[in-house]
Amino acid sequence: MPAGGFVVGDGQKAYPGKLTPFVLFTCVVAAMGGLIFGYDIGISGGVTSMPSFLRRFFPSVYRKQQEDATTNQYCQYDSPTLTLFTSSLYLAALVSSLVASTVTRKFGRRLSMLFGGILFCAGALINGFAKHVWMLIVGRILLGFGIGFANQSVPLYLSEMAPYKYRGALNIGFQLSITIGILVAEVLNYFFAKIKGGWGWRLSLGGAVVPALIITLGSLVLPDTPNSMIERGQHEEAKTKLRRIRGVDDVSQEFDDLVAASKESQSIEHPWTNLLRRKYRPHLTMAIMIPFFQQLTGINVIMFYAPVLFNTIGFTTDASLMSAVVTGSVNVAATLVSIYGVDKWGRRFLFLEGGTQMLICQAVVAACIGAKFGVDGTPGELPKWYAIVVVTFICIYVAGFAWSWGPLGWLVPSEIFPLEIRSAAQSITVSVNMIFTFIIAQIFLTMLCHLKFGLFLVFAFFVVVMSIFVYIFLPETKGIPIEEMGQVWRSHWYWSRFVEDGEYGNGLEMGKSSNQGTKRV
Ligand code: BGC
User: Fold this and answer.
1) 297 lines ligand 1 (CB under 6 A)
2) Which ranges does the record mark as transmembrane (predicted)?
3) Which of 135, 153, 277, 478 could form a disulfide with 346, with the two C-beta atoms 3.0–4.6 Å apart?
């Protein structure tokens, strides 16, 4: 996932290699990894806005929803079990990604993917056939475990299998497949909600079994990556595999580099203590602050709860689900813009432009909801212009996120960590992201109940803080190979005091091998 985020390589080495069927099939399976993660993000909000689902599993929420609009609308979804249904997945993902990193390293990427696939299948089936709330939660936890494994192994697998020159593009490609997963979930929710008899939510939740099966079967058929074989001492097999994967005979240069990279990464004894060294202060700061800020944009309020939110602010179930499809489509389209522009306009420009756009939209949405619902949450009659303005500004907000913090929240960390700290720093980025994803999922509905429209102003405040942070502290990383990052920190007005001359270039991040760029775990 980006939630695993894979690491873009350094340097511009041109190893011989073709886009072989192996590589293409790998991309399909990897895309499923992103898709299923996105699907799980997007599916829960839709089903929780379906009356038949609420009546069955959350009757108290259902009763509140049925009361007329003269009661406080802000609090109708404020239920701890309902939030647990959404958020448990992220906690499980956090826990399992810690285990998954060892499994991925010791037993190979493939086995980790297989685990992920099986857990996904089990989670999707339990959810689809759920009879009690606990089955829903157990299902979500299994999906979360699956995400921990898949997000650890799939991006890594992809970046190790793909020819070197495609790795950067694939990083955002993975984010794109997440956004497509979210959209697919929203579209299916829209149609399944219409099924007579009110059991459409079973199809929505159970639908995750399709990409889950593709990942499971894919991991049975696909070979392990040469990097992983080398890491486990199987050098000859690795070379033969590399030839087949690249579709050329002469792979010696890439192979030698892989072996060198593997030796280098194994020689790193204390990645965690390394990270605490003074010269890595900028890296540690970014590893924590970038994922923290990404979640504090408030994006997942929309991704998880868009239909619930739209319902709260006065839309019918059908209109809410439709509006979620609209925001989901904008999310996909704007991610494409990012793929196009990230190397043209640079990261800082996108961060700052996206931040400004999100800020304006949050202020407008807060003002609209505040004007209509006031502090007591009683809207009365809602005019059509109101719905149009709210949905439009939420779409512009989503676009701002999707071409800035969405992909860059994963891309930028992957570009700045030298090998010596890569595994530790990347784990921190993933964990911080999951923790705050969990927290937002867990507290949003309660916060909406208490802070009302002011909630959007809380996120707006953080957008201001993060934009200032980027402006002051984040150097541009566009077009900078990882081995030259030392120079970037050294010439930065603030970070130069931590990264001194001669200190940063200890040879590790200079590694002979560009494949070090794929090392993570
Ligand atoms: C974030 C997710 C979010 C998604 C939305 C990702 O970059 O990490 O939390 O749901 O973007 O597209």
Assistant:
1) no
2) 22-43, 82-104, 111-130, 136-158, 170-193, 199-222, 284-308, 320-342, 349-373, 385-412, 424-447, 453-474
3) 478
Query: Which sequence spans correspond to the domains of the chain?
Result: 21-224+268-498
CATH architecture of structural domain 21-224+268-498: Up-down Bundle (1.20)
Pocket probe for ligand 1: among 35, 172, 178, 437, the residue whose CB has the most ligand atoms within 8 Å is 178
Query: Is the pLDDT confidence value at 18 over 60?
Result: yes
Q: Is 176 in the pocket of ligand 1 (CB under 6 A)?
A: no
**Measured distance CA(207)–CA(78) in Å, rounded:** 27
Does ligand 1 have an atom closer than 6 angstroms to the CB of 178?
A: yes
Residues 237 and 462: their CA atoms lie apart, in Å, by: 51
pTM score, whole prediction:
0.85
Q: What is the pLDDT of residues 30-60, one digit of tens each?
A: 778 888 889 989 998 889 889 899 999 988 8
Q: How far is CA 75 from CA 182, 307, 369, 380, 383, in A?
A: 25, 15, 14, 16, 22
The Cα–Cα gap between 421 and 439 comes to: 27
pLDDT by residue (tens digit) across 466-478?
999 999 999 998 8
**How far is Cα 138 from Cα 337, in angstroms, rounded to an integer?**
37
> Between helices 133-161 and 21-48, what is the axis angle to 10°?
150
